[in-house]
Each structure stands twice: as structure tokens, then as C-alpha cells.
Design goal:
CBS-domain, six-stranded mixed beta sheet, 19 helices, 41% helix, globular, binds magnesium ion
Length: 415
């Protein structure tokens, strides 16, 4: 079994692997083997530093990054985030371990092949973009392609396309100094995007921006990601940023990966006190969504045109059985048609020629599963019935009731 298969068979993550990191280590210093041996013997990195002067930057990191996701690496300053992301494209040479990108081990790659990969398929964006001051915006954006030897017409055509995506096409002929900091940052992003990499590495790329510009850049990134799914590894020390843009988050402490998961995984099941401390004071309702708390306990009725009277009685019987006064009506595709109550059903039975659709209560109340929980709160309070939650196709996922929500909030408060 090769390293790729092994990591896949570990089977912890769903999704197709773009990057697999296995037992990755980085020791800074002149005696890395000694430090590695001491790590094997179970010594702590602080002890190793004290005794040998060797700095353990990353210790035994193993995880998978899936194709098309934004994978955020988060942790306090000095926890090893920059070291880890630079190991991925070997700006820093690993001391031990594997970095498998698209099935190939970057750690074992020849220098030429590596350079080629960095130019064509793996862009890196840093906190300071270091734009070339005497070159125009479009020349800066096209710089990566210039290095790769693409001719000027083609590279300016592609740069212009990307400048449009980041909203800077009208500034193509300006010099960087004529732009605001936020706009310069977008030129840097455009430069990374122009080579159209399938993997983007971003180290605190937005950290130098003021909060407003920063949110704006996050939105640009999210929008770009919706248009074209790249794999993005994004280092941030900012929790809000991580939760906002990350599909999954990897939390580092003292050179080690302590947890990898979705924001929900991490909020609900923090691996240890360090992770928990990160989230203290976070308004979790902002990050949990409707589908995270939806439950399947409500009565659903299929809307069948043929036999509506039998349908009514069966529906009423089931509602009685489960002690419910409301039920959701679904069509054959599981889409939510609406809500009925015991009363509206009974009224229809008493009048002949009525169908299930006549019993529907007024109003469309289905809520998209990705709605933030704090936006759901008000509706749950306002509506007398449970709220049906649907996926992106409008199909029924479950329901949120006042009881479910109260239990959830009470648990959050206690935690
Ligand atoms: N070139 C280097 N030489 C020695 N130690 C380093 C070097 N680069 C980073 N380190 C150390 O490695 C650890 C991780 O640093 P870094 O990856 O930059 O953390 P972060 O990006 O999370 O702030 C720190 O203790 C840092 O001092
Ligand atoms: Mg850093």
C-alpha cells in the first residue's frame, strides 16, 4: 500500500483528496536527527529546545485536504501555521514525513519538477503581496505567467479576466501606489489567480487589512470559490475569518495539529481545552445553521392526488399517534408543500371534494438549511408550528421546534 492509499484507508474524511499530509515534521536547527530521536523518545519540544537548541516547528502533522474545499489552518502566533503551509510547497524543506499532492509526494520531488508545480498549479499568497512598484496593475497581475514564459498577449488577456473577477479591470493601467491598500491586496490575489492554480496557499493573506476591507476580501474569495472550485489552504489566526470562509478548520498548538473538522464539529466537540478556549465568547448561533439542529421527529404526509379522504384520516391518525397538532406535507420529490394542522385537516374532512392542498395553512415557511441559527430564532418564536428545514433542492431535512431550540440554547449556555 502506498502512502496515498494508506491515508485514504484511514478514512477519517469524506471527499476526494487533493493533499495528504502524513507524519510531517520540521525541525529548525543543525541537529534535526537528534531532535527527531528525542521526539520519538517522547520529549516535549520545549525540553528539546532547552537541551539542544533545536526548534520543533511542526510535529507529526497528519491530515487530508479535500478537492475544492477551503481548509483553514488556525492557531496562536508561533503555533506552526506558516511553517506547515510552507512545507506544502517546500518553501521549507521537511525533516520527515510525506506531502502528497494529487497523488505525488512533493517531499521527494526533483527541484525542476517542484518549480514547475509551483509556477503552474500551486500559487502562494502572502500577507504582504510585494507588488512591483514600477509595473502597472495588469503587469503585476500577469507576473506569474511572465515567469512561466507565457507570451504577452495571452498573459494580459488572462490577467484582465481575473482583474474583472476581483473588480479591478478599470484600474488595469494604474500603478500600485495609485491604489488603496485593499485594492493592492486584490492585485496580489489576482496575481495568484491568473496562473489558475488548482491549489492556492494563502498565509494570513488578509490579516494586514482593516476589518471592512478584510470582510470584503473574504467575500471576493468566497465568490470566486463559488464560480470555480479550487482547493485553498488559508492560514489565519482569526477565528471569525476561519469560521466565515473555512469548509474545514485545522487547529494547531505548539507545532501539533490538535483538531481538524468542520466549524460545527469543532464548536460542538472541541478536542481539548485549548480548542475550547479559542471558542469561548463566540456567538455560536452565528455559526451554527438551521440544518445543524434540525430533527426528524415531526409527522410528514405525502401529497397524493388520488385518495385524499383516506389521506386525511391516515394523516390525522398519525398525528394523534405522535401527539402532534401540525404536520408537513411533502410531494414525491420530498419537497415541502406546506403545513397542515389537525384543525385544518378536520375542517376539510367535514367538507366534501377537498384535497390535502386545501388544508394547507397560509404562508411559505420552509427555511433553507444553511440559514444561520440566529436568523432562525425569531421565526421559531413567531410561528406557532415547527419550522420545516430544507436543503438546496427544497427537500425536507427535518424540523426545528421551540423545544429543540431551547434545549440547544440551554446546552450552549452551560458549556
Ligand atoms: N527559520 C526558522 N528558524 C528557527 N525557528 C523558526 C524558523 N521559522 C519558524 N521558527 C519557529 O517555529 C515555530 C513556528 O513558527 P511559525 O510557523 O512562523 O508560526 P505561526 O505562523 O503559527 O505564527 C516558532 O517557534 C518559530 O519561532
Ligand atoms: Mg505565520
Amino acid at each position: 500500500m502506498d502512502a496515498t492509499q494508506q491515508a485514504n484507508s484511514a478514512g477519517t474524511e469524506a471527499g476526494e483528496a487533493k493533499v495528504i499530509v502524513r507524519n510531517l515534521h520540521k525541525v529548525f536547527g543543525n541537529k534535526p536527527e537528534l531532535a527527531m530521536q528525542m521526539l520519538k523518545d517522547g520529549l516535549h519540544k520545549d525540553e528539546i529546545l532547552k537541551r539542544t537548541g533545536q526548534v520543533v516547528g511542526v510535529q507529526d502533522a497528519s491530515f487530508q485536504i479535500n478537492k475544492g474545499e477551503i481548509f483553514v489552518i488556525m492557531g496562536l502566533s508561533g503555533s506552526g501555521k506558516s511553517t506547515l503551509i510552507r512545507l506544502l510547497n517546500r518553501l521549507i524543506e521537511p525533516t520527515a514525513g510525506n506531502i502528497i499532492v494529487d497523488g505525488e509526494d512533493v517531499a521527494a520531488m526533483s527541484r525542476d519538477k517542484l518549480l514547475n508545480l509551483r509556477r503552474n498549479d500551486m500559487s502562494m499568497v502572502f500577507q504582504s503581496f510585494a507588488l512591483l512598484p514600477h509595473r502597472t496593475v495588469i503587469e503585476n497581475a500577469a507576473f506569474g505567467l511572465e515567469i512561466a514564459g507565457v507570451n504577452v498577449a495571452e498573459r494580459e488577456r488572462r490577467a484582465m479576466e481575473v482583474l474583472e473577477q476581483v473588480g479591478l479591470h478599470t484600474f488595469a493601467k494604474h500603478l500600485p501606489a495609485q491604489l488603496s491598500g485593499g485594492m493592492q491586496q486584490r492585485v496580489g490575489l489576482a496575481r495568484a489567480l491568473t496562473v489558475n492554480p488548482s491549489l492556492m496557499l494563502m498565509d494570513e493573506a488578509f490579516s494586514a487589512l482593516d476589518p471592512l476591507r478584510r470582510t470584503e476580501m473574504q467575500d471576493v474569495l468566497i465568490k470566486l470559490q463559488q464560480e470555480q472550485k479550487r482547493t485553498i489552504v488559508f492560514v489565519s489566526h482569526d477565528l471569525d475569518e476561519a469560521l466565515r470562509i473555512g469548509n474545514r478548520i485545522c487547529i494547531m498548538e505548539g507545532g501539533r495539529v490538535v483538531q481538524v473538522g468542520t466549524s460545527e464539529d469543532i464548536l460542538q466537540r472541541p478536542a481539548d481545552d485549548y480548542v475550547k478556549a479559542f471558542f469561548t465568547g463566540v456567538d455560536t448561533n452565528k455559526y451554527l445553521t438551521a440544518k445543524d439542529v434540525a430533527q426528524k421527529g415531526e409527522v410528514t404526509i405525502f401529497d397524493r392526488a388520488d385518495d385524499s379522504v383516506a389521506g386525511f384520516s391516515a394523516a390525522l391518525a398519525r398525528m394523534q399517534l405522535y401527539n402532534r397538532i401540525y404536520a408537513f406535507v411533502l410531494d414525491e420529490q420530498q419537497k415541502v408543500v406546506g403545513v397542515v394542522s389537525a384543525e385544518s385537516l378536520t375542517n376539510c374532512i367535514n367538507q366534501s371534494g377537498k384535497t390535502l392542498r386545501d388544508a394547507l395553512l397560509p404562508g411559505k415557511i420552509a427555511i433553507a438549511g444553511n440559514t444561520p441559527l440566529n436568523e432562525v430564532l425569531q421565526k421559531v418564536v413567531e410561528y406557532p408550528c415547527p419550522l420545516p428545514i430544507v436543503d438546496e433542492n427544497g427537500e425536507y431535512i427535518g424540523a426545528i421546534t421551540k423545544t429543540v431550540l431551547l434545549r440547544k440554547l440551554y446546552k450552549e449556555k452551560k458549556a
